[in-house]
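Hi support team,

I'm opening this ticket because the web form for multi-chain structure prediction keeps timing out on my end. I have pasted the exact lines I submitted so you can reproduce it. The total is 618 residues across two entries, so I didn't expect it to be a heavy job. Is there a limit I'm missing, or should I split the entries? Thanks in advance, R.K.
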Amino acid sequence: MKKLYLLLLAFSLFIYACKKESNIQNAVSTFLGFQKPANFPQPVYKLENNKFTEAGFLLGRALFYEPRLSRDNTISCGSCHIQSSGFTQHGHDVSHGIDDRLGSRNSPPIMNLAWNKTFMWDGGIFDLDLQPISPITNPVEMDEKIENVLLKLKQMPKYVTMFNRAFGTDEITNARMMKALSQFMVLCVSANSKYDQVMRKEQGQVFTPDEQAGYTIFKERCGSCHREPLFTDGTFRNNGLAIGPNNDQGRSMATLHPEDEYKFKVPSLRNLGYTSPYMHDGRFLTLNGVLTHYAQEVQATPNLDPLMQQNGRLGIALIADDKLKLLTFLKTLDDKDFVTRKDLAEQ
Amino acid sequence: MKSIYKYAVVIFYLLTVISACSKKNDAQPVSANKATLSLQFDNIVGDRNLQLQTGTYKNASGEQFSIQLLQYFISNIKVKTKDGQEFIVPQEESYFLVKESDGASQFCKVKVPEGDYQTLTFTLGVDSLRNTMDITKRTGVLDPTGGMDNGMYWGWNSGYIFFKMEGTSEQAPVDPTGVRKFRFHIGGFGGYSAPTFNNIKTVTVDLSAAGIARVRGGRESNVHFLVDVMKMFNGKTNISIAANPQVMFSNYSVNVANNFSSMFYHDHTEN
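Hello R.K., no limit was hit. The queue was backed up. Here is the completed structure from your submission:
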C-alpha cells in the first residue's frame, strides 16, 4: 500500500512537472504585443516604426535592468524606476544616481508612455526612442557613454543572442538598443486599477458611495489638467508651488520662453499610492500634503496657471471632507497588478 | 627650310598644349554619369592655420585662447551650374561631421552628375526634419549617442549640436575641474513641440571668382574652403570668452551662430 502511495505521488509529481512546462510554453506563445486598453485613446508612440516581438520585449527588459548601462556598472534604469513603486524611486525626493550623486528632480514613472507626447518634467525629449540617451549620459544618473555601453554588451554572448533574436542579426547598435528599451517601456501599461474596471464595467465593479463622491469632486476641480483616462493632459503648467531653493525653472529650460518659467509637466495620478513623494522635486511626502498645497498654499509665482486663480482666490477650494473623498477616489487609481506583474520585473 | 621646321615644331607644341588644356577643361560633361565632388574644410584662425592645443590666438575682445576641440556638421549639399541646373545630393549621402582632429573628415565627398558647377550650397548643422526623425534613420555621424565630450547630440533636450568648439583661455573662469575652459556648443533646430530659436545656417557660395567645380568621371574636383573660426568670435557681435565662457542651449547662442555663418571662404578649386 505504501508503495502504491509513493508510486501515485511520483506519478502526480510527474504530471505536475509536465503541466508546469506546458504553462511556460503557453506563456511564450501568447505574447500579444501592444494592446490598447478599451478605455484608452489611440497611442502617440509610433508603433509602425518599431515592430514589437517577444524577443524585442525580453531584450528591452534585460537592458532596462542592466547595470552595465552605467559607467561603473552599478545603476540600471530599474534603480530609479522601481516596479513596486510604480516605476519611480520610492523614498527619494530627487533621483539618486551614480557615486551617490543626486539629480534635481523626482524620478517620473515608466507608465503608459505610449500616450506621452513629451518626456521629462520639462518635456525636452519628444521621442521615447531617444529618451534613454539622457539618463545614460547624464553625469548624475548613469554617467556613461553610449559607445561604451555597446562595447560592454557586445562582449556578452547573452546579448549577442538576444539582439539576434530580436532583430535578426548579431549587430548591437544604439538604435536597436533604444528600440528594444522602448518595446519594454511601451508595454509597461497600467490600465487595471479599480477605476479602469469600473469604467469598463468589468465584473460588475462599481464605486463605493465615497469613491463616487470623490470622483465627482475630482471631475469638477482636478480633471481639466489631470484628464481622464490617463489622468494628465500632457501640458506644462505652474501649479503654484513655492519656488524651490535651486530655482528650477522647468519647461523654460527646454524652450527658453519666459512664459514657460516654473511650468512642469502635469503628472498622471495613476498609482499615486505607490509613488510617494510627489511633485517635480518630491517635496510632499503624502497625498494629504499635496491636497493641502492646492487648498491653502498655492503661491502667485510667475506664470501661475489660470485655473489656480479663479474667483479671486489662489488654489482650489477643498474642505476637509472633500479631501477625504478625493483621497478615497485616488486610491481607485492604484493598479496592484501593474506593480506586481512578473513579466515587468527584473528576472 | 630649317625655319619652317622650327615653326612646325612650335605649332605642334602649341597644338599639343592647347589640346591638353581643352581636354581638361572642355571635355563635355555627361550628366548621366556621376562623379565625385569633394568639399574641403580647412580650418584656420584669422591669419594662421589652426593648431589644436598648441596654437594661441587673440580675438577682437583681446582675449588669448587655444582650441582643444572643433567639430561641426556639414549637410544637405546642393550644386548649381551657370545655366541654373540644380542637383541636390540625396539626403542619405549628405551628412558629414568635420573634425579638426581627423584630417580625412575634412573632405566631404559626394557624387554629383558631371558638370561645371558655379554655385555650391550646404547647411552648417542638421536640418530640422532629420532632428525629428526615427532613430533608425540616424546612422553614421547622426547616431545620437550624446555625451559631453565628443558627442554632437543633446540627450536632455532632443536635438543635434551643430557646432562645437572648446578650448582654454586665461580669461575664462575656473570651471569645477579647475581648468579655465570655454565651451561653445551651438545647436537649436527650431523646436518640436514648442517653437524655439533656429541656428541652422545655410551657406551659398559663388565659385566663379576662385574657380568653378568641373566635375568629371575619373578625377576629383576639390572645392577648397578656408574656414576662419575667428569669425565665430569676431562679427556682428564680438563674443567675449570672459563674458560668455559657456554658450550652449541659450538665446545668446543665436549671436554665435550669426557670426559663424560667415566663416567659409572659398580659396580655390582643384579640378
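A quick check on our side: The two ends of chain B are 42 Å apart (CA to CA). Let us know if the file doesn't open in your viewer.
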